[in-house]
Specification:
- The protein has helices at 21-25, 38-50, 65-74, 101-107, 109-116, 130-147, 159-170, and strands spanning 10-16, 58-61, 83-84, 152-157, 187-193, 196-204.
- By secondary structure, it is an alpha/beta fold.
- It has a single domain (10-208), classed as Rossmann fold, CATH 3.40.50.1240.
- The radius of gyration is 17 Å and the shape is globular.
- The model is unreliable at 214-221 (pLDDT under 50).
């Protein structure tokens, strides 16, 4: 009796967008628009080279240009049109959008300190809680994995969104959501093993070596 070939695993590759003007300037940027810098575009191209031999069936991004543009650069030459999923959006910073972090630290010291201390109850004025972001990004991840069983899909999203998504997969307590870094255009991976999503790669940045500003943000810093 012939042996059936084993089906390939379900893989979801997850990348953060390239450096943006708001990243460079130290501004909160969740649901606001901000453009990729020259470095950000170079990082996206390096991500594309890293993925060059990977057969990618589909790509999903948030609707913000920094994610869409990163995906377009990384997938240049492939016949893949990224699909937008609003649940992959970055955390909403509400009234803090596009404000400099150092200015918020001065004008809202108590709220800023709660954010830095990883208080699960922290919420920017008019923005989202970490629990809300964890729930929606994790749901988006599961949808992608379900749609592309035994295939490899790429997700291009945002720093805090990816931290929340992967913290949910890992079952981390809410106050530990930000205990790992997600650098611009770093690559992570979730593989579905025996029906369970498992983190099999986290914050890989070797493909960014030699690019100025390749290091991840400082621990505890919001990585929009």
């Amino acid at each position: 009796m012939p042996v059936r070939p084993r089906k390939p695993p379900t893989r979801v590759l997850i990348a953060r967008h390239g450096q943006t003007e708001s990243n460079r300037d130290g501004r909160f940027c969740g649901h606001a628009e901000t453009a990729l810098t020259d470095l950000g575009r170079a990082q996206a191209a390096a991500l594309g080279r890293r993925l060059g031999e990977v057969p990618i069936a589909a790509c999903y991004t948030s609707d913000f240009s920094r994610a869409v543009d990163t995906a377009a650069i990384a997938l240049a030459g492939r016949e893949i049109t990224p699909r937008v999923d609003l649940h992959l959006r970055e955390i909403s910073y509400g009234a803090w959008e596009l404000e400099r972090e150092r200015d918020i630290a001065r004008s809202h010291p108590e709220e800023f300190a709660r954010m830095r201390s990883e208080d699960p109850a922290w919420q920017p004025p008019g923005g989202e809680t970490i629990a809300q972001v964890r729930a929606r990004t994790h749901a988006a991840l599961l949808r992608v994995a379900h749609r592309h069983r035994h295939e490899t899909a790429l997700v291009v999203a945002h720093g805090t969104a990816i931290q929340c998504m992967l913290a949910e997969v890992l079952g981390m307590r809410p106050e530990f959501t930000f205990r790992f870094a997600v650098a611009n255009c770093a690559l992570s991976e979730v593989t579905v093993l025996r029906g369970k999503p498992t983190v099999t790669l986290l914050n890989e940045t070797l493909h960014l070596r030699g690019l100025q500003g390749e290091a991840a943000d400082a621990p505890g810093k919001r990585q929009a």
